[in-house]
Specification:
Strand 1 and strand 2 form a beta hairpin. The protein has a single domain, classed as Up-down Bundle (Rhopdopsin 7-helix transmembrane proteins). The protein has about 425 residues and is mostly helical. A three-stranded antiparallel beta sheet has the order 1-2-3, with helices on one face. It comes from Panagrellus redivivus (Microworm). It is found in: Cell membrane.
Length: about 425
Amino acid sequence: MDHLNSTSPPGRSPITACFVNITAAEKAELILEKLQHRASAVFKLYYGYLVIPFAVIALILNIIFVMAVCSAIKKHRVSRKCYVLIINRAVGDIIATVAAMVTVTYVLVKVEPNRDLVQVMDTFFIASFWSALISYTALSSLKLYAVARPFNYRKTVTMKRCLYLVVISWVFFAFVLVYTLGITALTKIPALQAWSGCRLETCLRTMYRTRNTFMTFIYFFTIICFIGTVFFVHRARKFVSSFHQKDSTARPRILRNRFPMWKLALNVGTFAIFHIFYVIWALGLLTITDLCFFQRNYPAMMRLLGLVRLSLLTRMLLDPILSFVTDFQIKRSMLSLFNINATVQPFDSRKQFAMSTSETNSSDNASGTPAGADKTKTTTISEGTTIRRKNSASKESESGEPPVSVDKSNDAD
């Protein structure tokens, strides 16, 4: 009975002495297996069950949103140049939600999910960052250019150039994705690892630090670009307004009516609020100097990353809802997709229409134009469509309402 009462030497298990003389490689393998087992439980909860409602709802809403915007563009209800950039953001969110659903399926089907595959699939979450950067920065630049160079706007900013910007941005995103997959392959595939000599704490850590730096730069650059645009647009409008005091529907007002600054501020605000958690997580990793910190605390770090992913999915879910609520034309197109004939209150873009009409009437009355004389009223509304109404006493008596002719000259915008 003495051997049961004896205390084991420090650093040895009191249960067995079979693993006292194991090699360092065997000990490292046992530790990795233990961490992998703990990480599997984290994957199934934070990358599986909790993600399902967020990803499914966000995917459905973003698909409906893209269909509604495409329908509005086809019917010339909204500006193509502005809303194609909003579609670009929604496409990035769709890619991210599809990647989340693939990850959910994988971690729930596999008994022991491969941590490397989970991290590779997580790379597609960069799509939401990248598409938001391109969309919001480009929209900010368009609004700034429309005020600074109003008469060159239509000639310089074309639909073709906006599409080129979107395509080039996704080509660059593909390059970042290939870089991530390439470094992962050099580290994880035995033959390539023997050739490259890459390890988790060297090549792979450097790759993730580069990616985190890139994401942090995207976040702050987008916000700074928007703030700078608000500042310069405010100054430019003060200067330009002095030349258009007599014309309330002047050209510099076009883009403001098509995609108001408050809508862009709402979108950038959701981006700034819900993506800040990922930026904090990335900055925290960048400040850690211990090469093995992430590997030693892998389950806890992946748990934190799982919570961060939920915040990103919340933003992807919230953005289309806000657009349906605040954007009259998109809400109208969305209802028409489901053949719903409901009365939509035009509390955003139609207000610009009503204000412009009242301003025109007041200017006509001030100039002393007779009420019964033939006159042409030109009003620029949010869709970029110019409506000319000719008030004729004879035509009004015949039809009961003034004839309306639609000029499609602005539809290319």
